[in-house]
Amino acid sequence: MTLRPASNLACPMDDLPLDVSGSAWRCARGHSFDVAQEGYCNLLLVQQKASRDPGDSKAMVAARHRFLEAGHFAPIADRLYFQALGALAEHQGASPCVLDAGCGEGYYLARFADLAEKHGQPPDIALAGMDVSKWAVKAAAKRGLAATFVVGSNKHPPFLPGSVDLILSVFGFPHWEGFARVLAGGGHVLLADPGPEHLAQLREVIYPTVRASPPPSLDAAGKAGFALAAEETLLFSIDLEGQQAIQDLLLMTPHGARVPQERRGAIAALERLTVTIDVTFRLVAKRAA
Ligand SMILES: C[S@@+](CC[C@H](N)C(=O)[O-])C[C@H]1O[C@@H](n2cnc3c(N)ncnc32)[C@H](O)[C@@H]1O
User: What is the pLDDT of residues 60-75, one digit of tens each?
Assistant: First the structure.
């Protein structure tokens, strides 16, 4: 089993292959991108940024890191790994490339690497993580995995066209045209999204009424040439002990920014909370052109 950093990067200025050796990555036209001290490269162009500091903030990344490292979401990471292996089994090429798009602080790629080592499979795989948040990518790169980490957007993934075999999108924000461009023929996207009961008890503390919403629609995926290939649910519950874990979970979800002032006291008073985790896994295949 060999995991190695992906090298199929494309220059965000002109889409030419990037030479990723050395302390700066370069394309044949001389565009150059410095490699940060932590080993990642920022390939997000100013004109691709929706704000000055896009994506998750430094505080959100830190909260997510503490929460995930406590192991609360390990069953999600395990399921993701085995589903990814299933998708890669259909892959014909010698050394598939897996891209975690919206990789956050790298927890799922780290678990992927741990499980690959434990189970001795898959045989050879190139790994990459990308996030629009530089704070997330910095934290992910610090893990020292055999993976390439870049700051980049799902809308313009800085990878060579048709060079990625599997995209992981865990609680992410897929951009289907961007994904279609970099995916190889026969490639897949593996989505892990909140199911109807996800975080129900936390939402009950925050909102006066709580609706069981379905996972995000795949209409945009269909329009971009993707079709649902498989769907599965993972349902379990976690017991959170203490304010730190509860506040971390809140901060790492969209609910953190939506808590009304009058509910903050109720949350601050919680010392423990049992929360339902409901995740919908969907494997989405790129249809042949
Ligand atoms: C809910 S977090 C999930 C992070 C990670 N997948 C996990 O589950 O731990 C969503 C992530 O998507 C990133 N993100 C948001 N918009 C993005 C985009 N357009 N392209 C790439 N990443 C994006 C955020 O910065 C954040 O790290």
Answer: 999 999 999 999 999 9
